[in-house]
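debug: dumping io for the single-chain case to check the tokenizer round-trip. Nothing else runs in this session.
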Amino acid sequence: NSFGIISTLDETPEEIVLSFDADQGKYIKTLPLHHSQEILVDDDAEFRIKLTLVPTFDFEREILSLGNRVKIISPESFKNSMKAEVVEMLINFN
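debug: decoded output
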């Protein structure tokens, strides 16, 4: 249930749903983000997956590295956490 090198032994994994455009989806299909990756939608408009993991710092960095090519669908808590991170980034660029 881990992503990266951070230990998650005492933490409960979450179901995280991510959406990508079809082009980015081809890459994510070829090189899955995590072994739990399950494809929910795969068509000309969207590639949507579900992951079951603990959203570690390493996972957050991976999601941020995808920029505007990824949308966090759920859970709301993870989406809000990442929004807060992006707001802090914007402040640093002003």
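debug: round-trip ok. Residues 1 and 11 are 9 Å apart (CA to CA).
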